[in-house]
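pls design
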């Protein structure tokens, strides 16, 4: 696995892959990799001869400094996992490489990005869309893979790619759960033992019959702070907090 930190070197590598007529798949991540990320890599491997992964903890998508500071980082084990998964290229840029403009330029969506996650995390999706646009321009993959746990992120990235005529196919991949139903997330590692026992109730309650408001009430009774539970396009989406850990989940509406 080639590990590159510079955007121009990464562009050269990816251009050579395309020039050789090989399909290139891409999985953008912020590291602290778990089975959910590796399922994206596996899917990318199935559908492309070459696979690139990026690890970049993107500061512009964190509205909360403490969340950024506490974001888990496991560069050594991440690299080992990606090597074992047969990844061809790991792009590992520093902040200045991605934000030489100090974030003067950004991508902004002014409707869906203001709802749900966006309503609770001002500027979050500007940061996500901007970094994804930059990464797609550097890697220029045939396909890029996004987990459905971040359902709203997936929709916004998909629509951005259409809007700006990007020739990368944005592929949604199913959410991966722990055995007890908790949606896999890098932030789960920050749950205390007690909150870890409560956390699977998010999925359990969302999966029950009932209105979004009934589910919100049940989550409150189970000990969650609830940011939102909403029904959108046939899905129930929720964000709820345990301690200082924010959990996202979504299920088909029943
Ligand atoms: O889903 C994530 O891990 C991040 O939002 C992404 C897409 C890598 C952009 O920083």
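designed seq:
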């Amino acid at each position: 696995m080639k590990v590159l930190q510079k955007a121009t070197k990464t562009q050269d590598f990816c251009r050579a892959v395309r020039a050789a007529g090989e399909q290139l798949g891409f999985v953008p991540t912020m590291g602290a990799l778990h089975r959910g990320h590796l399922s994206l890599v596996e899917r990318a491997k199935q559908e492309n001869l070459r696979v690139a992964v990026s690890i970049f903890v993107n500061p512009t998508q964190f509205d909360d400094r403490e969340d950024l500071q506490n974001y888990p980082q496991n560069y050594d084990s991440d690299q080992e996992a990606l090597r074992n998964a047969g990844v061809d290229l790991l792009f590992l840029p520093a902040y200045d490489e991605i934000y030489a403009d100090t974030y003067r330029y950004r991508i902004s969506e002014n409707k869906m990005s203001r709802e749900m996650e966006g309503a609770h995390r001002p500027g979050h999706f500007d940061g996500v869309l901007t970094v994804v646009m930059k990464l797609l321009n550097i890697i220029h993959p045939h396909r890029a893979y996004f987990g459905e746990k971040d359902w709203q992120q997936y929709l916004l990235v998909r629509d951005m790619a259409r809007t700006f005529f990007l020739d990368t196919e944005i592929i949604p991949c199913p959410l991966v759960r722990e055995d007890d139903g908790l949606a896999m997330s890098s932030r789960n590692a920050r749950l205390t033992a007690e909150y870890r026992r409560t956390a699977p109730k998010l999925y359990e309650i969302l999966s029950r019959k009932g209105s979004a408001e009934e589910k919100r009430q049940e989550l409150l009774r189970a000990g969650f702070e609830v940011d939102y539970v909403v029904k959108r396009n046939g899905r129930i989406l929720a964000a709820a907090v345990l301690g200082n850990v924010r959990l996202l989940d979504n299920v088909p509406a029943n």
